[in-house]
Amino acid sequence: MYNYLVRRLGFMLLTLLFVTVITFAVTNILPGDVALLILGPNATDQSIQALQAQLGLDKPLYVQYIDWVLGLLQGDMGTSLRFDEPVAQLIGEKLGRSLLLATAATAIAVFFALPLGVVAAVKQNELPDLFASMFGFIGISIPIFLWGLVFILVFAVWLGLFPTGGYVPPSEDPIGTLTHLVLPASAMGFALTAYIMRMTRSSMLEVLSEEYIKLARAKGMTQRVVVLKHALQNAIIPVITVVAFQFSYAFGGVVVLEEVFFWPGIGRLTLTAIQSRDIPLLQGCIIVVALIYMLSNLTADLLYGYFDPRIRYGGDD
Amino acid sequence: MSTTTPTHDDPSSSSPLLEVRNLRTQFHTESGTVVAANDVSFSLDAGETMGLVGESGAGKSVTARSLLQLIDPPGEIAGGEVIFEGENLLDYSEKQIQRVRGNKIALVPQDPMSSLNPVLTVGEQIIETITHHQGMERDEARAQAIDAMTDVGIPDAAERIDDYPHEFSGGMRQRVLIAIGLSCQPDLIIADEPTTALDVTTQAKILDLLNELQEEKGMGILMITHNLGVVAQTCDTVGVMYAGNLVETAEMHELFRHPQHPYTRGLIDSIPQIDTAYDELPTLDGAMPDLTDLPQGCNFAPRCEYATDACRTGGDPALEPAGPGSSRAACIRTDEIDLRQGYVPDDVERTEKQVDRSGDPLFEVKNLKKYFSAGDGVIGNLSLSRNGGGIPKLERRYVKAVDGISFDIYEGETVGLVGESGCGKSTVARTALKLLEPTDGEVYFDGQPMHEMGDSEVRSLRREMQMVFQDPHSSLNPRKTVGQIVGRAMEKHDIATGEEKRQRVRELLERVGLSASAAGKYPHEFSGGQQQRIAIAHALAVEPKLIVCDEPVSALDVSVQAQILNLLNEIQAEFGLSYLFISHNIGVVRHICDRLAVMYLGKIVEFGSIEQVFDTPFHPYTESLLSAVPHADPTRKSERIFLEGSVPSPLDPPSGCPFQTRCPKKIGEECETVVPDLEEKEAGTGHYLSCHLSIEEMSEHAGFVQSEQAEQSEAQHGD
Ligand SMILES: Nc1ncnc2c1ncn2[C@@H]1O[C@H](COP(=O)(O)OP(=O)(O)OP(=O)(O)O)[C@@H](O)[C@H]1O
Ligand code: SF4
Ligand code: SF4
Ligand SMILES: [Mg+2]
């Protein structure tokens, strides 16, 4: 575990370095002169040059990169061109909301997907399995925003149980935060459930055909013990990877859902940054999303170690 | 049986512990219904060990699992009775049978590597069985689990109980499986090939352990195995299965002395004995029929040398009393034929193969080394270690899989490589052929230094050196026809093309015992033995001088194994080939090799002709290895030499002699500090030994060699 963790962390840092290079390179290739964009089409050459000097854009690219990375290390992500506010502050506001949504969605998904996947595997090719497969198929093939619209229509418009959208900070109204969270989290969770369930099902099926499951049965263990104790603990290991991936997807990748529910998260912020050529903000968003992705993977790695003693003790001197 | 278990209270002592009547288990498959156990009947007494033998696919495991209703769909138990303690287990509901499983009847499965749950501690896996069946408190169950682990010879059981399966070696895991089986003190243990996955030395220990435990606790054992040697060493009675039928049941000595079914005779004869020299092994030609497509009459008729028309047209012969003893056989001619006489190798005629060792060897390996980096490092073989809790430091760690090996092979010669699993046999072969880059050492083929060659030169030399692997199924491309597979090898090395190629493919296929029409079929249409023939044809296609065979018969049944060994011998005589033959099966090696190298922990400990290695003086390791081989002849029980512990990790090999941690003849300090050289103890004999002992000391106490003569007189006595 020791060697394994050190290797994982080292790998993560390398990846992060790579991400900064790519982010910086790509955002600098984007068409459009920033100074021109800020000052508008009527700007004079002098004012443009002055602004470029002020933003540091006249320096060579590698110097700009190093400045930027050094800034990042100190938590300084630069200033947003569009909002004229520190990027770190802008992202900080949305970060909590996006994490909240992603966590809630993932929790809902895991809560439903695990039991469904297990039942589907145990009752392979029987009615529960067919039902679960169909459910999974529908969940995967219908786009996520459509679920959002359906949920709004049914639970907000018709039944009036929840607000149609928006966000209330918990400092103002914790209950309000929750009621606003339910629909977007459920819509996203619903789509994620399908993936996690399919993974759980196939992983369980594989484990259930293992020799040690046969031995557990031969020892006289009941079906309950065989499935929940012997099989699930093994089957969950590959599922963790999928869950970690789904979490980071839910965190930054579902702009369209944030739009549908007017949920001001990282996704929408990224979109705004792209549309307004707000390069510092865009860079900040990408780095934060990448960081969250890596952290959720690291969590997955730690969880592997928890569930799989071969990893926990392997390479430990 | 000194004590009987308290759970077993049998009112009438005459009724058997287990009685199986007309058991029938079938599987519904796409190609039809397979009857894997057809009308199987036998009985087993308390304290008795019954062996169930037969080729793979004969239905042994299905029969055993049926007893506990452990048949999963699409299988079903279609009829019969399993009477245990006066009740029919097949009538039991799932809930009722769960109380029998693991409690009164325990199953010890075959594969120690995959039968333990990797995420639960071994203790938990034993304890849960006890708490589940005996309703004990955890503490009490834990104590009982430690007892069970101690019973099966796991050292420091109390400390190891919380370890996970991957922290145990294969042999130790098998012990854990037996401990699970014993934990509730069952009346019957079903052991499904309990030692097949283990090395001979470990196998010997586990079999002895089972025998001892049985004497102590008096349970019945149903021992499933395909190894007649195991049967001869452990069983009281035997059932022989063929194509789903029980074809013979007999008392064990009676089975070997006077088999009543021709199949039994064939099985016994096919096993190469470690103390007999053969020109050619007797074979059971053909293979077991496909269970979806059984012949009309006796299932064995297509392979039976005694078959008559009556055999082929009548129904399945029933299992009926046969011979003077208590044997039963399913053969209509059993009264007419006498199978007492086994195959006798005509020793007068044994044509001594002449190998000319005067010139240069064809293949020569000098001081070959292959180190693998230990895969758990941070980067490559650099590993962080924190000895004593200090600051972690980077260290280089290696697995010394092959550590300074030298041998040579002459034209027309077969050199064998034996040793326990993990000792580096396969790595020697791969490294010598440069399939793996050697860490150090020299390899000469036909005088050319292969270790100095570049990739392309080596590739063109490959034509002269072919390999045949253990698993023919995975080494043949499933999407190519056999003709394409064999023909492509010829094209690649410019041997033949077009019509000439096709002609030669047909000839080759016929040469290895297949029909020429096999060329148009795909590998999966053939049985394991036939696939190995195809692999041999493929190797022969490029007219090599050397074929490296890595466990070529280990995956095959004994009868098929004998066919392949004979084929290898024939083509060697015909084409003047040389073989490097890797195997862990000592009987096989004895039969096919001219010279033999015994490996231990990446080094050769003994090298010499078959006669030299199989006779005194012995290297202490060779001696224990030979003594552990179970004889497929009950009259020759050998005195086993048990080795302490298990093979040390090649990551951290012992100082001095690599065998010193387990050597029964160790002489103390010298063995611990000085690495013995591999040297000729008597100049000019060509018999190399790596040990500090003198020749006299290496010739002492060769118990199992001497006992043979003694046992022979006993055998005559016994008749
Ligand atoms: N690619 C590899 N990386 C690391 N270690 C290896 C590798 N291949 C083999 N080893 C190690 O080398 C040693 C010898 O392996 P090898 O497969 O040659 O043994 P073997 O005698 O043929 O065993 P078996 O009878 O089980 O086939 C073992 O300890 C094995 O774990
Ligand atoms: S019944 Fe006939 S074919 Fe079958 S084993 Fe006996 S002799 Fe052979
Ligand atoms: S050198 Fe010593 S330890 Fe090694 S085999 Fe000989 S007697 Fe045994
Ligand atoms: Mg091997």
UniProtKB/TrEMBL annotation, chain A:
The keyword Endoplasmic reticulum does not apply. GO terms for cellular component: plasma membrane. The chain crosses the membrane at residues 99-122, 134-158, 178-197, 231-251, 281-304. It is a multi-pass membrane protein. Residues 95-304 form the ABC transmembrane type-1 domain. One of its GO terms (biological process) is transmembrane transport. Keywords: Cell membrane, Membrane, Transmembrane, Transmembrane helix, Transport. The keyword Ubl conjugation does not apply. It is found in: Cell membrane. InterPro entries: BPD_transp_1_N, MetI-like, MetI-like_sf. Belongs to the binding-protein-dependent transport system permease family. This is Peptide/nickel transport system permease protein. It comes from Halogranum rubrum.
TrEMBL record, chain B:
One of its GO terms (biological process) is peptide transport. It is a peripheral membrane protein. PANTHER family: NICKEL ABC TRANSPORTER, ATP-BINDING PROTEIN (PTHR43297:SF13), OLIGOPEPTIDE TRANSPORT ATP-BINDING PROTEIN APPD (PTHR43297). Keywords: ATP-binding, Cell membrane, Ion transport, Membrane, Nucleotide-binding, Translocase, Transport. CDD domains: ABC_NikE_OppD_transporters. The complex is composed of two ATP-binding proteins (NikD and NikE), two transmembrane proteins (NikB and NikC) and a solute-binding protein (NikA). One of its GO terms (molecular function) is ATP binding. One of its GO terms (cellular component) is plasma membrane. SMART domains: AAA. This is Nickel import system ATP-binding protein NikD. The keyword ATP-binding applies. It is found in: Cell membrane. Its EC number is 7.2.2.11. It catalyses: Ni(2+)(out) + ATP + H2O = Ni(2+)(in) + ADP + phosphate + H(+). It is an enzyme of class 7 (translocase). SUPFAM superfamilies: P-loop containing nucleoside triphosphate hydrolases. It comes from the Archaea. Residues 18-268, 379-626 form the ABC transporter domain.
